[in-house]
Amino acid sequence: MEAIILVVGVSLVGFWEWRLALIMALAIPITLAMTFGVTYMLGIDLQQVSVATLIIALGLLVDVPVVAGDGIKRGLAEGLPRGVAAWLGPTKLATAIFYATLTNIIAYLPFLMLSGNTGEFLKSLPIVMTTALLCALVVAMTFVPLLGYYIQRAPARKEPTLEEKRERGFYGFYKRLVGRAIQHRWSVLAGSFVFLLIGGFAASQLKSQFFPEDVQYWFYLDIWPAPTTFP
Questions:
Q1: 210 or 179: which carries more pLDDT confidence?
Q2: CA dist 223 to 170, 198, 220, 226, 227, Å?
Q3: Lowest mean pLDDT among 12-16, 37-41, 67-71, 92-96
């Protein structure tokens, strides 16, 4: 609950629009309810790893509804009817949404190759992660258009065009930065390799340990009561 509240609060501050934040606030419980149902059918209980996985997935699964909701918002800003904008917004981005979801799923699949007690302990992590992201994809393509149709409205003020955004503010700064990077592309490529080598050297100096060492000492004492004879 705390994670959901924080995510919705950050989205409200970031987008500064309560309608889009409300859509995401409604999409998260729907996604989690679907995830609980699928994981129940797969025989995975709510335990330490599965709950931690849901918290990790929360930061990923909100991306898809946000992108779909923003697509609907842009369609309404262009003057499209609500029904057309609700359908066209997520549809135009369906390919990007699908491959972003697939990339996140594949990134966690190597956990299934772990063996021994560690693999058994972390087995539910990639399964729950995959389930949550796929449910988020379904929600983004079904429930988010439905919610967007009834909740979102066209902005009161006309939004600036891309050409206007590129000339001022952060977009203007980013455009100039990218332009200079393209002009000096070989220098940028060489600098990227330098940072890559520095990062590789720093990673080679780190000690690796999958689980932290257990510093607690446990003592076991078996007590066997002597047989008692009654007079």
A1: 179
A2: 71, 58, 10, 9, 12
A3: 12-16
Is residue 59 over pLDDT 70? yes
Tokens of 46: 């709510």
DSSP per residue, 19-52? HHHHHHHHHHHHHHHHHHHHHHHTT----HHHHH
d(CA 201, CA 208): 14
Virtual torsion, Cα 100, 101, 104, 107, nearest 10 deg: -100
Inform me whether the pLDDT recorded for 229 exceeds 80.
no
**CA 186 to CA 180: how far, in whole Å?**
11
The pTM (predicted TM-score) of the whole model is 0.71
Tokens of 130: 């995959």
d(CA 104, CA 118): 22
User: Structure tokens of 37?
Assistant: 């149902």
Task: Please state, in angstroms and rounded to a whole number, the distance separating the CA atoms of residues 157 and 159.
Answer: 6
Q: Tokens 């078996």 belong to which residue?
A: 222
Task: Report the alpha-carbon distance of residue 67 to residue 136 in Å, rounded.
Answer: 12
Contact 80, 72 (CB under 8 A): no
The secondary structure of residue 115, as a DSSP letter, is -
Structure tokens at 186: 């070989």
Q: Are 94 and 168 in contact (CB under 8 A)?
A: no
| Mean pLDDT value of segment 157-182 | 79
Tokens of 160: 């600036």
* pLDDT tens digits along 8-29: 777 777 667 777 778 888 888 8
